[in-house]
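[AMINO ACID CHAIN]
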Amino acid sequence: MQQLAGRFGALRQQVREARALQQQQMLLHQQQQQQEREQQQQQREQGGAEQTQQQQQQQGLQQEEQQPREGLPGMEKKRERQQQQQQQQRKSVQQQGQQQPQQQQQQEQQAERASAAANAV
């Protein structure tokens, strides 16, 4: 019984961390959407919007191929949402010509692991 209680405590902690990470991700996502909108505005003014959209679509397809789908049907949607978020984050980072900080990738991986653990409860 004590082992079980300990496990539940650990799981609860993971869920708390997952929620905190998700909140961070949402904030990041909102910031990046804002940046994306500003960039699209700039591109429209420069007349180069079409080209980058094509690049984004190609990039999205490549990512789908690299990350095979797996897991439970409930996690499927969650994973797709996360993939879309990650794709959007990578796109906006690429558009700015910056390298994506490794910390953000680690956060994404942690969030995926934690949400998988939360789903398993």
